[in-house]
Amino acid sequence: MSRYIAFDVETPNRYNNRMSAIGISVIEDGVLAGDFYSLVDPEQPFDWFNSQLTGIDAEAVSGAPVFPELWERIEPLMSSGILVAHNASFDTGVLRKCLIHYEIDWLPRVQGICTVLMGRALLPGIGHRLNELCAYYGIALDHHHAGSDSRACAEILLRYIEGGADPVKFIRTYQMR
């Protein structure tokens, strides 16, 4: 498959069961084909730490869509390719918890690629945090902004592919229910 959906979420608090922002970057036939970003009203309080890290607080999400409203818009996109995330177990986990909380029926399992695990296999001996890989590859990054993080994840995947990696070898199955 040549369509990858890189995504990143930010969370409002330590529970990591809601999102306060989501970024999505689409790779189509080996090129970045589009980006999407939205704040999300998590309908939960914000922890100070998360607000300091992301710059998102209750005031910032005032008027933003709640997850079910946003899901109606992004579900076709999220269903259109292999999901990719930097530390995919975290991002897919937050997505799964949102779907379960709001009783949204989606796929029971999805195929995904974790660019952290992929990077550890391809580039042993260097750091694999998002900011470290962006520095290594010269990729611009506004860290902990979901739109920038998803785009950086997509660009890292493209660098791996350009270096000869076969992303199909790194596909895993993530439970969504």
The total number of structural domains is 1
* Secondary structure: number of strands: 6
Helix content: 25-40%
Q: Name the structural class.
A: alpha/beta
What is the string of SSEs from the N terminus onward? EEEHHEHEHHHE
Largest β sheet strand count, sense and barrel closure: 6 strands, mixed
The whole-angstrom Rg is: 15 Å
Looking at the structure, what is the overall shape? globular
Our count of helices gives 6
CATH architecture: 2-Layer Sandwich
- Stretches where pLDDT is under 50 for at least 5 consecutive residues are none
Q: Give the DSSP E fraction (strand runs of 2 or more residues).
A: 15-25%
Order the strands across the largest sheet as they lie in space.
3-2-1-4-5-6
Distance between the termini: 24 Å
Query: What is the CATH C-level name?
Result: Alpha Beta
| CATH homologous superfamily descriptor | Ribonuclease H-like superfamily/Ribonuclease H
Average pLDDT across residues?
97
Q: How would you describe what is shown here?
A:
The chain has a single domain, classed as Nucleotidyltransferase, domain 5 (2-Layer Sandwich), CATH 3.30.420.10. Helices cover 37% and strands 23% of the residues. It contains six helices and six strands. The chain has helices spanning 48-54, 67-78, 88-101, 115-122, 130-137, 146-162; strands at residues 3-10, 21-28, 31-39, 82-85, 109-114, 171-175. Helix 4 runs parallel beside helix 6 and helix 5 packs across helix 6 (146-162).
